[in-house]
Specification:
The protein has about 60 residues and is mainly alpha-helical. About 85% of the residues lie in helices and about 0% in strands. The two termini are about 25 Å apart. The protein is flat, with a radius of gyration of 12 Å. The longest helix is centred in the C-terminal third of the chain and has 17 residues. The chain has one domain. It has three helices and no strands. The model has no long low-confidence stretch (mean pLDDT about 60).
C-alpha cells in the first residue's frame, strides 16, 4: 500500500513538474538509491542521488 501511494505521488509529480527527460533522470537516481549496485557504481552515484531524496522532489 505504501509503495502504491508512493507511485501515485511520483506520477502526480511527473505530471506537474517534470519534463520526460528530467523524470527519467529522477527515476534513475531513485533506482540507484534503492537497488544495490556494485560498489564502484554506488560510490560514483552516491552524491548525485542522495540529495534528491533527502531534499524532496525538485
Amino acid at each position: 500500500m505504501v509503495i502504491f501511494l508512493a507511485m501515485k505521488s511520483v506520477l502526480f509529480i511527473k505530471f506537474f513538474f517534470f519534463t520526460d527527460t528530467q523524470y527519467l533522470l529522477f527515476q534513475i537516481k531513485l533506482a540507484i538509491n534503492i537497488i544495490p549496485f556494485p560498489s564502484g557504481l554506488e560510490k560514483e552515484n552516491a552524491f548525485d542521488s542522495k540529495p534528491v531524496l533527502s531534499q524532496g522532489y525538485y
